[in-house]
Amino acid sequence: MGDMVGRLRQRIYLLDARLRTMTAEPEKGLATAEYAVVMIAATGFAGLLVAILKSGAVKSLLTNIVRQALSV
After folding, report:
1. Angle at the Cα of 29 (from 34 to 12), degrees rounded to 5?
2. Helix (H) or strand (E) holding 62
3. 0.85 cut: is pTM over it?
């Protein structure tokens, strides 16, 4: 009977240790996935911004703003 109680205690200790480990950092892998999604979105937004800024209308608009600011 004492041996059975000892094995039961050991299993309870192992289960408790496993639960504590799992709840200590439950989203460890999720942070990496979120980081990857944010990086892809940021890269796409940067590409879109570069395409917009390279257009002729935006270049002339920005040039006119700078000229007006420097002429004052």
Report:
1. 145
2. helix 56-71
3. no
